[in-house]
Write a structure and sequence with these properties.
By secondary structure, this protein is mainly β. It contains no helices and 13 strands.
């Protein structure tokens, strides 16, 4: 994340126990506005911004403290893609983002979480969007993108995809208000 600059620190909490965050390790490079996804074993940190947009994909094994390893690249350098975990425990998604300070995009990028490698195209959102919340229900493999920012406009739309079937997003409904810089969570494990 960002404080007065970029930060490479990974922290963790034990969800079942109230308490402060503890150091886990470091990302391979400090950055902010990055996206993340996971399965039950591995966590991936994708894209973000350092002094420029980056396409790096870092991976950790969640049960073992330590530094992240660079395992591949997104197809484009991307910052501000969907915030929150969007995964069916096999495939992870990043929805939207921006490639330059004024170039939002509708791209949905997919990665296979368990194996090292590069991201690839999944499909598109219905419009250009950055800084949206995203979440998923692994049971029915539905990924959802909520709100965000499109050039000069805050959004309230909700879109969804079926993670196991690459393709474009479909309208799901609307949030009760426009929102950006949000994150999504789900009752499902991922």
């Amino acid at each position: 994340g960002g404080t007065s600059g970029t930060n490479n620190v990974i922290q963790y909490v034990t969800v079942q126990t109230a308490g402060n965050a503890v150091d886990f390790g470091d990302l391979s490079e400090g950055r902010y506005f990055l996206s993340a996804t996971n399965n039950l074993t591995h966590g991936l940190f994708m894209g973000g911004y350092t002094t420029a947009y980056t396409n790096r994909i870092d991976k950790i094994t969640m049960g073992t403290l330590g530094n992240a390893t660079d395992v591949g690249d997104m197809s484009d350098a991307n910052s501000g893609g969907g915030q929150g975990v969007c995964s069916d425990n096999t495939t992870g998604l990043v929805m939207g983002g921006n490639r330059t300070s004024d170039a939002w995009n509708p791209n949905i990028e997919k990665v296979t979480i368990a194996t090292a490698g590069n991201g690839s195209d999944f499909g598109d959102l219905t419009q250009d969007v950055s800084y949206a919340g995203q979440t998923a229900n692994a049971t029915n493999a539905r990924g959802v993108c909520m709100g965000g920012y499109s050039p000069s406009v805050q959004l309230n739309n909700i879109e969804y995809v079926t993670i196991s079937s690459p393709g474009n997003a479909t309208d799901f409904g609307d949030l009760s208000a426009v929102i950006q810089y949000s994150a999504g969570v789900s009752g499902a494990a991922s």
